[in-house]
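Hi everyone, sorry if this is the wrong subforum. Our group has a chain we'd like a structural model of before ordering constructs, and none of us has done structure prediction before. Sequence below.
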Amino acid sequence: MRLARCLIGRHPRFGIVEGDVTKPAGLKFRPINNNPHALHKPPFPHEPSHATVALSTVSILSPVTPSKIVAVAGNYCAPAARRRIKPSTLVPNLFLKPSTCVIGPGAPIFYPAFSSLLLHEAELAVVIKRECRNVTREAVADVVLGYTCANDLTAGDIQRTEPHWTRAKGFDGACPLGPWVETDISLEDAGNLAITCTVNGHVRQAARTSQTIHNITDLIVAITQAMTLLPGDIILTGTPPGYGPISIGDTVTITIERIGALTNTVHAESGR
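Answer:
Right subforum, don't worry. Here is the predicted structure as tokens:
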């Protein structure tokens, strides 16, 4: 199931995207009639509307509105290096991005005026299903709603000069998400998906999620030892090699196998 959030008239609505994703012109959006905040409660409890609209006729928003985004730094490495690392001896290097980072597919990325080095970072995003704390390895699959594409935008020059990454990673619009949450991917399959990033059609990043040091289970166990995750919260699982600079006018597309593509274009801050 593909869960999306779209602007119908002036109102954001959660709903289901129907159709063949390889044929975007034929995709339909079927709004959900009742409480969208119950998205995390299994089984899927909603009464879908009988009416659908063409997805191409509505604005697609970020598929969730998280209370927080928990991200991990340095979670990919080259195969040779990975063989020399014992993940059990490492703790994931975690950081937070605020909810105000989130924008949806097609929304403009505004180049932050305080930076001169904006970086793209393609990532698989895990969407949390229900409130959880101290999740065991055996229970991880039960707290995952699904997966979406993310771009962990970074002010690279600020990241290098400031010991904490609040400005470098937390500026407005620094976390494009979308296009929807794919719920029909198992935890095992999510650990081996192709992920790419193109800038103006040229491939910058290409990897598989199996190349991470800490897998999704490792991350959820470690994070929930420290903090409570709420429905709709996002975990960013790290970016593969190849992340790099983007400029005003560039179009960035993050594509993840079995999920879809997230595209945004960079604009000048003065265009807000």
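For your construct planning: The first helix runs from residue 79 to 83. Residues 76 and 94 are 14 Å apart (CA to CA).
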